[in-house]
Design goal:
The chain is of the alpha+beta class. It contains two helices and eleven strands; from the N terminus they run ααβββββββββββ.
Length: 165
């Protein structure tokens, strides 16, 4: 082999090695600090379809006079018993990121895992493309918002919680 060809192969190898190093650093940064979530413009959010309702058997005490959810209670997992008041918030993000409204730090939760959103007295849950999924009453959610009834178990990673009045 000529010395020129050997030099070119060495340079190509070094360039490929640096691309690999940058890819690893980018992946670590995204995992540690999360990826920014794009907010929908007001016009696009208004044009989105209404959430698909979840059909469930009615719960005792849930009739036409049922109250709106006012807090979220963690029923199992590392933070079991934690009561999170919802107050007047219209949205609650759930994930491993410190920017989330409900921070769940376990290996099965994504940085930006799911979002609870209020429209009037109705709460909807949406999976944000998480790796391990979000489960509502034992069923895995898609990326479309789904209505959440009070007392329905929601599972994110190793944590289960529910909305309560």
């Amino acid at each position: 082999m000529s010395e020129l060809l050997l030099l070119v192969l060495r340079i190509v190898f070094l360039v490929m090695l640096w691309f690999f190093v940058f890819a690893v650093v980018y992946s670590l940064r995204a995992d540690l600090f999360g990826v920014r979530v794009r907010k929908m413009p007001a016009g696009e959010a208004a044009a989105s379809a209404p959430p698909a309702p979840v059909h469930q058997a009615p719960r005792p005490g849930s009739g036409s006079h049922a109250k709106a959810a006012s807090h979220l209670v963690i029923t199992s997992g590392p933070k079991e018993g934690l009561d999170v008041p919802l107050g007047t918030a219209d949205s609650l993000s759930i994930g491993r990121s410190s920017e989330s409204g409900l921070v769940i730090r376990d290996d099965y939760t994504s940085s930006h895992h799911a979002r609870l959103t209020r429209r009037g007295d109705i709460w909807t849950l949406q999976d944000l493309g998480s790796t391990n999924g979000t489960f509502l009453n034992g069923q895995k959610l898609s990326d479309k918002p789904v209505q959440v009834q009070i007392g329905t178990p929601i599972k994110v990673g190793a944590t289960t919680f529910e909305l309560r009045a």
